[in-house]
Amino acid sequence: MSLVPADREEYGPAPFRLPFECGTDGPRVVMVGIDGSDAGARAAAYASGLARRQGARLVVVFVAVPSLWIAVANPALVLAQEETFRELTAEARRQVRRGADELGLSVTFVCRRGDPCTQLGRVADKVRADLVVVGADGGRWRRWLPGSMVNRLVRAARWPVVVVP
After folding, report:
1. What is the DSSP string of 49-115?
2. 31: which residues sit within 8 A by CB, 6+ positions away?
3. Is there a contact between 43 and 164 (Cβ–Cβ < 8 Å)?
4. Is there a contact between 119 and 59 (Cβ–Cβ < 8 Å)?
5. Would you say 107 and 11 are in contact if contact means Cβ atoms under 8 Å apart?
6. Cα separation of 100 and 33, whole Å?
7. From the CB of residue 37, how many other CB atoms can be counted at a distance below 10 Å?
8. Cβ count within 10 A of residue 56
């Protein structure tokens, strides 16, 4: 079952179609990962402001993280989890569309499911992101654990990563 009808949607004015060039002045594609948290909202605000000032394209990636324990504990809860994912995705889509209209930004909305670090990395490679913006993980101790999403993303070392507290 698909999480959303479309995996990728475009909002706002058409982006400038410049050829890919490594080492340009400033980012052309800014990607931000959101998850419905306050840290994700702050990261989105930072990334959208940066994209607007730089005249860059903004790619917003919403990653839903399914829980395998739900299927083990009570298979009936899987349907409830699916409905929750659909509602969260619809709300994220509305907020991104509203932000694109308000700021006049070219925004691509991508919805994925799975491990956030893996999915953000795949999308960043696919869109050739010049910069990846994410919100800080949980509490102050969790964000520096070796297995944290932010730490894994930074260690991938394929793009500059900005972590917004």
Report:
1. HHHHHHT-EEEEEEEE---HHHHHH-TTHHHHHHHHHHHHHHHHHHHHHHHHHHHT--EEEEEEES-
2. 47, 58, 59, 60, 61, 120, 123, 124, 127, 129, 131, 132, 133
3. yes
4. no
5. yes
6. 16
7. 13
8. 23
Residue with tokens 């800014």: 30
Spatial distance between the Cα atoms of 11 and 25, rounded to a whole number of angstroms: 25
Residue type, 152: R
Compute how many other C-beta atoms are within 10 angstroms of the C-beta atom of residue 127. 17
CA separation for the pair 119, 63 (Å, rounded): 7
CB hemisphere CA count around 83 (13 angstroms): 5
Instruction: Output the six-digit token pair for 115.
Output: 């491990």
Please tell me the distance from the alpha carbon of residue 40 to that of residue 150, in angstroms, as a whole number: 12
pLDDT tens per residue, range 67-83 = 777 767 777 787 888 88
Cβ proximity of 139 and 39 under 8 Å: no
Stated pTM of the model: 0.78
Q: Which of 79, 86, 96 is nearest to 33 (CA)?
A: 96
pLDDT digits (tens, 9 = 90+) for 4-41: 445 777 777 665 555 555 655 678 899 999 988 888 89
Structure tokens that stand for 34 in this block? 């959101």
